[in-house]
Amino acid sequence: ERYLSDVALEPNRSVVASSSHTQLFEHLRSEWHFQAASDASNSTWVSFSVEFRFKSAVYNEVSELFMQEVVKKMVRAFEQRCRDLQAAREK
Hints:
Elements: E1 6-10, E2 14-19, E3 25-36, E4 44-54, H1 57-90
Antiparallel strand pairs: 1-2, 2-3, 3-4
């Protein structure tokens, strides 16, 4: 399945991606929010949420079985991208 996402970026604060013109989903929305840690460290709190509904009732039922794995993969990809960007910055 291919789809286009509308992405809204608020630098250093959030990224929101939503898709509505797709054959598979009624809607698909993911949000990443960033907040500097309150201590003196160079850390950031990241929160992630994803909301979706398949057009197929069967897919909606089955999706509960694999959702945790999909989220884990998305978080791992995000963490790897962070490492890649940090390594490039340190060069």
